[in-house]
Amino acid sequence: MENPLLLFPQLNISASKDKSYYKVMKSAIKEEPHQASKSGAKQKRNRLSLLLQKSEFHEGDHLAKPGNLTKAASVSPEEAVKWGESFDKLLSEKAGLDAFTKFLKTEFSEENIEFWIACEDYKKSKTAHELLPKAKTIYETFIQKDAPKEVNLDFQTKEVTSQNIQRPIITTFDAAQNTVYRLMEQDSYPRFLRSDPYLNLVKGRNPSHPTLRRRSRSFTVNDFQGVRPDFTVW
Asked: Which H or E run contains 149?
């Protein structure tokens, strides 16, 4: 007598090998690798579609960032043109100051405008009690040797400023601020006026939304239906 095949020991259910459901189970076991293969191929098709779509939409990411001096909606071409009248005119307007600051960051020289802004804030101090902590912070940040954001000052200006820091007054940083101002006016400002982001503002173009050449269509998973690609490259 043929020994029964124990299927579910906990339920005490057994069957002989010649039963039809044994053939069904054997067939199901054979189908598992085929189903796994189909599932893997579908996942790879989905992955390929996502990669194609991501590469298309990321074209604009790296193009938009460098040119964003300011939002075009907040700056009219007429206002941008006025920035070219003088360096003082540029710094006197918040949008112009912001745009110039972002430009200097692209040249890794933003410490100059940050020092100038700090000096402007320093001169707005209303009491002598406010001057000392502000003066110390400015000196340690921008002027002393090996300061984290040391500005380029001639020896004499740096020496005079270092001496005046002992007893700070409203005009303590005037000489240093004027030196940095002239440096930006003669060097960085002309380059700013020739930069593509500034010229785009003058022409009324929106640098935050550059015109992209898009593909005629995007691939989707449906495009690969019925296709048997070679996935050996993955």
From this structure: none
Task: Give the three-class secondary structure for 14.
Answer: strand
CA distances from 51 to 45, 54, 55, 147 (A): 10, 5, 6, 46
User: Please, what's the b/e burial string for 214-229 (b: 16 or more CB within 10 A of its CB; e: otherwise)?
Assistant: eeeeeeeeeebeeeee
Q: Which amino acid, one-letter code, is at 68?
A: N
Closest CA to 103 of 197, 177, 204: 197
Please count the residues of the chain.
234
Strand-strand pairing, 5-8 and 13-15: antiparallel
pLDDT in tens, 12-60: 544 444 444 444 444 544 554 445 455 555 565 555 444 444 443 343 3
Q: Using one digit for the tens of pLDDT, what is the confidence trace for 130-182?
A: 999 999 999 999 999 999 999 999 999 999 999 999 899 999 999 999 999 99
